[in-house]
């Protein structure tokens, strides 16, 4: 005890006017530290030195812990800033591609897959190929089927319905064309189902109101009647070894939209064809390899990559407002989800993060009266449910930070979304998600149809064809 008292008394007698004093700083101590460094001419006893060392070490330890915490916080804030920068670039590109799809019986999100190159170089494209989820346009009454696709309703049925209105079509259709496909969707859907007249339009948040895009584009003379150019139905013959059942499909479709005026096409696509030319190196890579080709299973299990989605869910934001799948609190996007529930996998199936079994049939799709069966896998992604895009986002693109396509929005609930991949590798054997190799854009061995096959069969001179059916990357 005496020693302690002596120590305290001795320490407090050290003059504060010592030459060359340097203060130790720590956010956890007061601005005036208990100890000061001493220069020449000031000597301490051994007891003083020992006490000083103990105190110095305590302060250094506290300071190190605090500084480490601050460093982690600074690193985290810096990472969030970088995440925001990356996200802004990704969302800008997704915005270039994406639209709200209005049609008589619903809404969804579509995106520019391709466009037809005009014969004259000084002309802007008027024929566009808009991709979406097939279920977005399920029920649409197409009056023709020039591209020999499986339609959601047969041409014969559509024509039969239209004949019911033949005696008053000239007065009825002008009234119908003035109905908002958003505000009067119940009425427009009733007309579509009763009389076979479906209509459709595209809108972007930047110009939807200006172009009055909530009204039908066909009946208001902005476009020719839309056609179904490609739909991914009846892709394969049955094959239990690859998990292929009859009436198989992937939830993907491509519309052909022909605008009547070049200027309107330019405005509604926001000059897309001027920004993304044949030699462009900044387009979204719609030909990106499947995730399980780019990474092995071990890497996928650890993958913390952000995935980005921009779409047009219905929500409360308004008819032309877009939404981003982005957690504003954590500054991160969608992540691969580890959901191993029986909803997405069989009991003994190998579990791969972000992969779920399409054969589980969680979505019951009926197309033109026939129940359809999914092929292969779908991706399962998660995000804070406050930021997950819901109804109306179906069909929207998912990409990574480098613009590689993961797939399109198929559905979801709560904090998870299901993503339809446009390609996948073959998987067979016990305890795996069985799948044929498939590629909805380029085709694959044993696959009966693809978007590329449609373009080549019908001799379309399109942007993707001119690019050699491959992504062009910066050197």
Automatic annotation (TrEMBL):
InterPro entries for this protein: Mycoplasma_peptidase_DUF31, Peptidase_S1_PA
Pfam families membership: Mycop_pep_DUF31
Domain DUF31: 107-409
Domain of life the protein comes from: Bacteria
Name of the protein in question: DUF31 domain-containing protein
């Amino acid at each position: 005890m005496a020693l302690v008292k002596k120590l305290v008394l001795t320490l407090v007698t050290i003059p504060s006017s010592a030459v060359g004093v340097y203060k130790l700083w720590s956010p956890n101590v007061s601005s005036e530290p208990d100890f000061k460094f001493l220069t020449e001419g000031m000597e301490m006893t051994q007891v003083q030195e020992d006490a000083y060392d103990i105190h110095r070490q305590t302060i250094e330890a506290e300071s190190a812990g605090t500084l480490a915490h601050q460093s982690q916080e600074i690193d985290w804030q810096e990472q969030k800033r970088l995440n925001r920068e990356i996200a802004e670039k990704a969302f800008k590109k997704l915005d270039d591609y994406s639209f709200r799809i209005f049609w008589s019986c619903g809404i969804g999100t579509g995106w520019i897959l391709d466009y037809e190159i005009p014969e004259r170089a000084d002309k802007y494209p008027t024929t566009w190929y808009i991709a979406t989820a097939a279920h977005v346009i399920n029920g649409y009454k197409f009056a023709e089927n020039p591209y020999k696709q499986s339609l959601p309703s047969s041409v014969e049925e559509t024509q039969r319905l239209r004949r019911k209105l033949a005696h008053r079509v000239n007065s009825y259709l002008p009234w119908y064309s003035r109905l908002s496909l958003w505000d009067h969707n119940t009425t427009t859907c009733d007309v579509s189902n009763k009389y076979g007249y479906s209509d459709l339009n595209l809108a972007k948040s930047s110009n939807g109101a200006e172009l009055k895009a909530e009204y039908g584009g066909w009946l208001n003379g902005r476009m020719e009647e839309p056609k179904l150019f490609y739909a991914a139905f009846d892709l394969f013959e049955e094959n239990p070894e690859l998990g292929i059942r009859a009436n198989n499909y992937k939830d993907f479709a491509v519309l052909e939209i022909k605008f009547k005026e070049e200027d309107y096409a330019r405005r509604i696509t926001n000059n897309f064809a001027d920004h993304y030319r044949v030699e462009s190196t900044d387009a979204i890579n719609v030909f990106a390899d499947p995730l399980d080709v780019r990474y092995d299973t071990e890497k996928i299990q650890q993958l913390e990559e952000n995935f980005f989605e921009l779409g047009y869910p219905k929500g409360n934001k308004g008819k032309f407002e877009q939404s981003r799948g982005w957690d504003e609190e954590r500054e991160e996007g969608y992540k691969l989800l580890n959901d191993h529930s029986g909803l997405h996998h069989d009991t003994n199936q190998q579990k791969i993060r972000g992969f779920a079994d399409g054969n589980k049939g969680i979505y019951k799709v009926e197309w033109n009266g026939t129940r359809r069966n999914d092929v292969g896998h779908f991706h399962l992604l998660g995000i804070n449910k406050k930021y997950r895009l819901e109804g109306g986002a179906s069909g929207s693109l998912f990409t990574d930070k480098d613009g590689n396509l993961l797939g399109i929005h198929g559905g979801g609930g709560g904090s998870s979304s299901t993503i339809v991949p446009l390609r996948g590798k073959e998987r067979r054997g016990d305890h795996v998600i069985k799948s044929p190799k498939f590629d909805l854009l380029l085709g694959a061995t044993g696959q009966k149809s693809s978007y590329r096959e449609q373009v080549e069969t019908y001799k379309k001179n399109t942007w993707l064809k001119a690019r050699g059916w491959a992504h062009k990357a910066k050197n």
